[in-house]
Amino acid sequence: MPELPEVESLTRFLAEHLVGQSVERVFPVAVHALKTYDPPLTALQGQAFDGAARHGKFLDLRSGGLHLVLHLARAGWVRWSEAVPEAPPRPGKGPLALRVRLENGAGFDVTEAGTQKRLAIYLVTDPQLVPGIARLGPDPLAADFTEERLAALLADERRQVKGVLRDQSVLAGIGNAYSDEILHAARMSPYKLAAKLTSEETAQLYAALQATLAEAVERARGLPLKDLKAEKKSGLRVHGRTGEPCPVCGDTIREVSFHDSSLQYCPTCQTGGKPLADRRLSRLLK
């Protein structure tokens, strides 16, 4: 799933390639992905893009008074081409959801792989009209996001810190992968209750959060869009690496599975050497 660093890289790439370019045609292919109908997508035709922004995991492409907002969900992506076909794409069961062709012949496709279709496309006059954007918490890479602000957000949270980090209404842009990476860097159990963090633990978490996200953004800087997913995977230290040795201590990275996701962690670095309970596995063994 694209998270803050990948969407930030997409934003920078598209800002560089789109600003000043006018839209020739818009081809909506996957109607289920389109979440708004007024204004219609055809309202973009003839308009020039004048900016790109990121709101958490949302990509915002601005054209005049309109905002083409994309949420790529778990398996969505943006594919850039210097030569987009003029003919309308054929509707079907493929991954293509939206195609935008510019007047210079270049453009981009918005695609979604897999069977779980969660990609969302909006065309609005104000990004705050998108419900997911309206409920976002602060951006952890914003200049005004301080350690004190993080402490205030965590103070009343009676949930496990892993879930709090992933909650977009608390912090914008962090998902399953980078929450694992942040907690590993902070040497903190994902099951630790957020409200019970000491001031020292909050400082560790803040430093790990800032460093992990900033490093991921920097690694992706300047890469072609087609390479961003591979770069993300190669840069992860614990997430998706169950059974591999921890790069810090050498212990075996373990996993806890849930109904639709899993988390990875290092027992030595994060839980005092104790494996966390995997409730799904426990049920299977009964």
Written description of the protein model:
- This protein has 286 residues and is of the alpha+beta class.
- It has two domains: 4-134, Alpha-Beta Barrel (N-terminal domain of MutM-like DNA repair proteins); 147-285, Orthogonal Bundle (Helicase, Ruva Protein, domain 3), CATH 1.10.8.
- It is built from nine helices and ten strands.
- The chain has helices spanning 4-18, 131-134, 147-154, 161-166, 176-185, 199-220, 225-235, 267-270, 279-285; strands at 23-28, 51-55, 58-63, 66-71, 76-81, 96-102, 107-112, 120-124, 254-257, 262-265.
- The strands form three sheets. The chain has a four-stranded antiparallel beta sheet with strand order 1-6-7-5, with no helix packed on it. It has a four-stranded antiparallel beta sheet with strand order 2-3-4-8, covered by helices on one side.
- α1 runs antiparallel to α7.
- The longest helix is centred in the C-terminal third of the chain and has 22 residues, at 199-220.
- This is Fpg/Nei family DNA glycosylase.
- Keywords: DNA damage, DNA repair, DNA-binding, Glycosidase, Hydrolase, Lyase, Metal-binding, Multifunctional enzyme, Zinc, Zinc-finger.
- It catalyses: Hydrolysis of DNA containing ring-opened 7-methylguanine residues, releasing 2,6-diamino-4-hydroxy-5-(N-methyl)formamidopyrimidine.
